[in-house]
From TrEMBL:
Gene3D superfamilies: 2.80.10.50, Glycosyl hydrolase domain, family 43. Residues 352-481 form the Alpha-L-arabinofuranosidase B arabinose-binding domain. It comes from Phytohabitans maris. PANTHER family: ARABINAN ENDO-1,5-ALPHA-L-ARABINOSIDASE (PTHR43301), ARABINAN ENDO-1,5-ALPHA-L-ARABINOSIDASE A-RELATED (PTHR43301:SF3). This is Glycoside hydrolase family 43 protein. Keywords: Hydrolase, Signal. The keyword Amino-acid biosynthesis does not apply.
Length: 484
C-alpha cells in the first residue's frame, strides 16, 4: 500500500470514528429539541409527614393532571432539614441535563414559621439528572450564606440567561437592609449548580412590602412586546416584563381586576405563581395556589401577556388526587415523556395480606401500629401496594399503605409499625422483605427480613412482629397470601 493510500485510509477511519461519535451524541441532545408533547409538574403537597418532598404529576393538555408514582414522593431529601418545598424543574438549553432546586424546609418536623424565616436554612437542595428519571443524591448549596443576617432561603427558581451564558438562580431571603427586615429576592449565577457567584439583590419592593414567590418565563417571539415575563407574590400578584433577565423590568399591573391578590387586595388570596406555555401555540397559563382557602391551584390563561387585562379564569381543569403546592412545570418531549411515564406512570394494584391460620383476618394498620384483624374498617387500612424493595435488592418487596402514600410497613425493635419513608438506608432495610414460598404451605407466601434474614414477618397475639421461625405454630403465623 502506498503512503498516500495509507494516509487516506487513516483519514477515512478517523472520519468514521468522528461520525460514529456524532451519531452517539446527537440523538440524546436532539430529543430535547423535538416538539413538546406533554407537561411535567414538580411540587410538594403540604405539611404532612411526607408532604414536604418531591412529587411529580403529568398532563397531556396542560390543564388536567395525573399524579405519578401512585401519588407517592419520587425524591426524598436526606440532607439539611430533611424536607423540601417549592421545587423548580430546570432543563439545560441542549437538553442533556436537568436539575431540581428546592427550599430546604420541613415545617412538619415542628419548626415554627418564625424560626424558619428568621433562623432557618440558608441553603437550597439540588438534585441532578441526565435523563429526568435517574437522579443524583441531594446536595446542599448555601446560596444565602453571604447575605448579612440572612434568616432563610425560600422559593428558588432558575432560568438560563443567554446574555451571560449561565443560569440565574433566584430566591427570597428575609434579612435586614436599610433598617427594614423583610423578604427580598436575591440571585446568584452558576453554570453547573455547584459553584455560584456571590449573592446580589434582585427585587426589592418599596417601603416594608416583602416578596417571596417570583417566577420568570421566556416567551418566544416576544409575544406581547417583551421577551420575559415574571409574576411575583408581593401583596398582589404583580406581572412585569423585560427583555433581559438581569436588565430593567416594566410593571404591567396586577390581577386585582380579577378579584385575585396575595393578601393586600383581599378577594381570592393566592401565592406560588407558576407559569407554563401550552404546547404548539401562543397561549400561556399562570397557575395560582389558592392557599388561603385550601382549594389548590387555579389556572388563568392568556394569548397575549402584554397586558394583565388579557387573562381569563379557566374552569376546565383537574389537579389529580394529590394536593399540589408551589412548584414548577416543564414542557416535555415525547422521548422525555416516555421515560417519565415508563418509570412512574404505571399504577400498581391494591392488595390485602391475608393470614394463613386466621383466614378471616388481614394485615392492617391502626394508629400506625400493625396487626391482623377481621372486618377492617375503614377498608383502606388493610390495603397496600407491593413495591420493589426499598433497599434495592432484586426479588424483594416493600409494602406501601394505600391511604398513607409514602408510609411503609417496617420493623422497629422487631415490632411492626407504619412509618413514613425518611429516605435513610436503615429505613429501607427495615421495610424490605424477600417473598418466599409459604413456610406452612408452598402455595402461600412468607416474607423474610432483608436485614435480619433469620427472621420473618409473623403475627403473635394478632400483633405483627419480626421473629425467628422454629416450630409449626410459628410457621403458620408467618404464612400469608396476597389477595385483591
Amino acid at each position: 500500500m502506498s503512503r498516500a493510500l495509507h494516509r487516506f485510509g487513516a483519514v477515512l477511519a478517523a472520519a468514521c470514528l468522528l461520525f460514529a461519535s456524532w451519531t452517539a451524541v446527537t440523538p440524546g441532545r436532539a430529543a430535547a429539541l423535538d416538539p413538546f408533547t406533554g407537561y411535567l409538574m414538580a411540587h410538594f403537597t403540604g405539611e404532612s409527614a411526607t408532604g414536604e418532598q418531591i412529587y411529580l404529576a403529568h398532563s397531556t393538555d396542560g390543564l388536567r393532571w395525573t399524579d405519578l408514582n401512585n401519588g407517592s414522593p419520587v425524591l426524598v431529601s436526606t440532607v439539611g432539614t430533611r424536607g423540601v418545598r417549592d421545587p423548580a424543574l430546570v432543563r439545560s438549553p441542549s437538553g442533556d441535563r436537568y436539575w431540581i432546586v428546592a427550599t430546604d424546609l420541613r415545617i412538619a418536623s415542628g419548626t415554627s414559621w418564625s424560626d424558619a424565616a428568621n433562623r432557618g436554612s440558608t441553603s437550597l437542595v439540588v438534585w441532578e439528572s441526565t435523563d429526568l428519571v435517574n437522579w443524583s443524591a441531594p446536595r446542599l448549596v448555601n446560596v444565602a450564606g453571604g447575605i448579612s443576617g440572612a434568616g432563610n432561603a425560600w422559593a428558588p427558581e432558575a432560568i438560563w440567561n443567554p446574555a451571560t451564558n449561565d443560569y440565574v438562580v433566584y430566591w427570597a431571603t428575609n434579612s435586614a437592609r436599610d433598617g427594614v427586615t423583610k423578604h427580598r429576592i436575591w440571585y446568584v449565577r452558576t453554570s453547573d449548580f455547584r459553584t455560584f457567584t456571590a449573592p446580589q439583590l434582585y427585587i426589592n419592593r418599596g417601603s416594608g412590602q416583602g416578596i417571596i414567590d417570583t417566577q420568570i418565563i421566556e416567551v418566544p417571539g416576544s409575544v406581547g412586546g417583551y421577551r420575559y415575563y415574571r409574576a411575583s407574590a408581593d401583596g398582589h400578584i404583580t406581572i412585569e416584563a423585560g427583555n433581559s433577565v438581569l436588565g430593567s423590568w416594566t410593571t404591567l399591573g396586577n390581577l386585582s381586576h380579577m378579584g385575585i391578590s396575595n393578601g393586600t387586595g383581599g378577594g381570592n388570596v393566592v401565592e406560588g405563581p407558576m407559569w407554563a406555555r401550552f404546547n404548539g401555540r401562543d397561549e400561556w397559563a399562570l397557575w395560582l395556589d389558592q392557599y388561603a382557602t385550601g382549594r389548590g391551584y387555579l389556572p388563568i390563561t392568556s394569548t397575549n401577556l402584554g397586558s394583565t387585562q388579557n387573562f381569563r379564569t379557566r374552569t376546565d381543569y383537574s389537579m389529580g388526587g394529590r394536593r399540589k403546592r408551589h412548584g414548577s412545570i416543564l414542557n416535555i418531549t415525547a422521548a422525555e415523556q416516555s421515560r417519565v411515564l415508563g418509570k412512574w406512570g404505571s399504577t400498581l394494584p391494591v392488595n390485602r395480606i391475608q393470614s394463613y391460620n386466621f383466614q378471616d383476618r388481614y394485615v392492617r394498620h391502626a394508629d400506625f401500629d400493625v396487626r391482623i384483624d377481621a372486618n377492617v374498617s375503614p377498608a383502606q387500612d388493610a390495603q397496600f401496594r407491593i413495591r420493589p424493595g426499598l433497599a434495592g435488592a432484586s426479588g424483594t418487596v416493600s409494602f406501601e399503605a394505600v391511604n398513607f402514600p409514602g408510609y411503609y410497613l417496617r420493623h422497629y425493635g422487631f415490632d411492626f409499625q407504619l412509618a413514613a419513608n425518611d429516605g435513610s438506608g436503615t429505613f429501607a432495610g427495615d421495610a424490605t422483605f424477600r417473598q418466599v414460598a409459604g413456610l406452612a404451605s408452598a402455595s402461600w407466601a412468607s416474607f423474610q427480613s432483608y436485614n435480619y434474614p433469620d427472621r420473618y414477618i409473623r403475627h403473635y397475639d394478632y400483633a405483627l412482629r419480626l421473629d425467628p421461625v422454629g416450630d409449626a405454630q410459628a410457621r403458620a403465623d408467618a404464612t400469608f397470601r396476597l389477595t385483591s
